[in-house]
Structure to design on (364 residues):
């Protein structure tokens, strides 16, 4: 599958085309794209399990050894909204369908997963004995930069009757509850990694990060967040964890007395911390994208998503790449081989039929 050249690309985005795969490889090939980001709450998200916000008691920083409780966004609560955003886009472009019976129907987390679309191949799936694909997107739980005590608040909410009151026909309604919410402008430093992508897969996953705006429970009412990308690194291995990134950033901000500073300052510091931590990692760094180069790359990726023609070109190419991978190495490999076997059998039967007709013509 050849890649069509798009009209606007930054130098960093063009350079990535030569660094990344032309097709998805069968085995891990040591190309890791790390997205360093700060997830920034813009309303009152709810990240909870068993009725309470998820927390963990960990060391405050790498240098600051005091223990503190932090809010936690578990791994699936980050990736699931992003892949659903990508699936929505694939359906909007007609590459997949949500209508059972259509040839390109793909069911999310079900036995009718198509096993070949960009979502299935990049984010993975598992359908019992029908096949599985390991996710190429690596993530982990993210931890709040600030302590739990100053990052949450409980709110009481109710569900009034249609009359707008808490009483109905003279009886008080009991639909009153209390729920713990994350406060606005709480930051969750994170690293999301994409393993062995093509250039088009890089655009797809980065687009999902930039376009996803809501996380957590009750997302149709709250949960607005912004993912600030502060750096991208192409390396030959995995790098530091979310918690390590958070603790290092905590130390850097504490030294400046700006733990609760403006998001622009926190992003700038996070970019510097990520670059410093990368120098300590035992990996080869093929390309580092920070500062102005990152801003230009993000502007160009945003432009691709604003252009329906360019976006269709990218995602149609990506769909071809993931389909080829599924047929060559993935869950559709068996179906392809069975198709070849049946084709050979039909040809052999055709040859025998032709031979019989030829013999009959000779006899007459």
């Amino acid at each position: 599958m050849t890649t069509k050249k798009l009209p606007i690309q930054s130098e960093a985005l063009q350079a990535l085309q030569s660094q990344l795969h032309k097709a998805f490889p069968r085995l891990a090939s040591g190309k890791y794209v790390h997205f360093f980001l700060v997830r920034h709450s813009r309303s009152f998200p709810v990240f909870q399990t068993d009725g309470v916000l998820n927390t963990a008691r960990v060391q405050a920083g790498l240098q600051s050894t005091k223990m503190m409780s932090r809010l936690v966004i578990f791994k699936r609560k980050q990736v699931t909204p992003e892949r659903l955003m990508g699936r929505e886009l694939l359906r909007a472009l007609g590459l997949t369908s949500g209508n059972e019976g259509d040839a390109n129907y793909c069911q999310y987390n079900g036995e009718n997963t198509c096993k070949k679309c960009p979502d299935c191949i990049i984010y993975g799936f598992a359908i019992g004995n029908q096949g599985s694909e390991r996710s190429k997107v690596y993530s982990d739980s993210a931890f709040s930069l600030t302590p739990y005590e100053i990052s949450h608040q409980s709110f009481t909410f109710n569900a009034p009757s249609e009359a707008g009151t808490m009483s109905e026909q003279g009886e008080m309604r009991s639909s009153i509850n209390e729920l713990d919410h994350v406060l606005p402008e709480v930051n969750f430093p994170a690293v999301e990694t994409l393993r062995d992508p093509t250039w088009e897969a890089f655009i797809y996953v980065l687009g999902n990060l930039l376009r996803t705006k809501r996380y957590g429970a009750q997302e149709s009412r709250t949960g607005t967040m912004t993912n600030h990308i502060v750096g991208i690194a192409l390396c030959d291995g995995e790098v530091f964890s979310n918690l390590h990134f958070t603790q290092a950033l905590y130390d850097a901000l504490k030294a400046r007395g700006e733990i609760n500073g403006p998001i622009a300052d926190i992003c700038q510091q996070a970019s510097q911390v990520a670059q410093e931590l990368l120098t300590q990692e035992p990996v080869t760094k093929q390309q580092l994208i920070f500062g102005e180069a990152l801003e230009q790359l993000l502007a160009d990726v945003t432009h691709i998503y604003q252009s329906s023609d360019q976006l269709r070109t990218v995602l149609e190419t990506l769909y071809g790449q993931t389909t080829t991978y599924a047929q060559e190495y993935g869950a559709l490999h068996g179906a392809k081989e069975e198709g070849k076997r049946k084709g050979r059998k039909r040809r052999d039967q055709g040859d025998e039929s032709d031979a019989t007709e030829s013999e009959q013509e000779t006899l007459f």
